[in-house]
Design brief:
Layout: H1 2-7, H2 12-40, E1 47-49, E2 55-57, E3 59-61, E4 67-69, E5 75-79, E6 88-95, E7 103-107, E8 119-121, E9 123-124, E10 129-133, E11 141-145, E12 156-164, H3 177-210
Antiparallel strand pairs: 1-12, 2-5, 3-4, 4-12, 5-11, 6-10, 6-12, 7-8, 7-11, 9-10
Helix pairs in contact: 2-3
Length: 211
């Protein structure tokens, strides 16, 4: 066994990165297939939402039609009673000061609480809109945190539109984004290091055992 392990050369990192790329390709193809199936079944379609479709928490509308935060945790909650497929949400809005962190929380089961393990962050487009891309799977509710005000500072927001499930290009299914790219770079490297250390420890243990 020890001799076989010795024959495994340094290509452990190459193997880990190859497996990571293959996993990325398979999951991308699976996501594309799942969306095509949902679209064929009529469950994936574009929809415009209004502020009135959300339940507002820690924010309220002003006389001029804008919305202002009441504390550091404004929320906009939307329920999905029809069980429709939700893949993206694009928000177009203006802010009188930096919105800072902008999250979209989601739940996958009825009655489930929102948590940090199920959230996505916005990608800002050149037109000033903010796009949230959700993972594949059942989405039962969304909680949009449109901004993260500094302590004791209020933010005034003006919403232009909310678009759900806008058409996506084929290339978008294979674009990992900055976060996904970082995972493709860092995770296989960590895995290769762990495998290499485990291999060295096993060889050392076998050598010590034979003495």
């Amino acid at each position: 066994m020890r001799e076989r392990l010795k024959k495994i050369p340094a290509p452990i990192p190459v193997l880990c990165y190859t497996l990571a790329v293959l996993f990325w390709l398979v999951t991308s193809l699976w996501g594309l297939g799942a969306d095509l199936a949902a679209k064929a079944a009529g469950g994936l379609y574009q929809q415009q939402l209004a502020v009135e479709d959300f339940t507002l928490v820690n924010m309220h509308q002003q006389e001029d039609g804008s919305y202002i935060t009441e504390n550091g945790d404004p929320q906009m909650i939307w329920q999905n009673p029809d069980g429709r497929t939700i893949r993206t949400l694009r928000m177009t809005a203006g802010f009188d000061r930096s919105p800072r962190e902008m999250c979209l929380y989601y739940t996958t089961e009825a009655g489930e609480d929102f948590g940090v393990n199920k959230r996505v962050f916005a990608a800002q487009a050149d037109d000033g809109s903010y796009l949230y891309t959700l993972p594949q799977g059942n989405i039962t509710a969304l909680r949009l945190d449109p901004c993260s005000p500094e302590e004791e500072k209020m933010v005034t927001m003006t919403f232009q539109s909310f678009v759900m499930n806008e058409p996506a290009s084929l290339a978008s299914y294979f674009a990992p984004g900055w976060y996904g790219m970082m995972q493709l770079i860092v995770c296989p490297g960590l895995c290769a290091s762990a495998v290499s250390l485990a291999r060295q420890a096993f060889v050392y243990y076998q050598q010590k055992k034979r003495r």
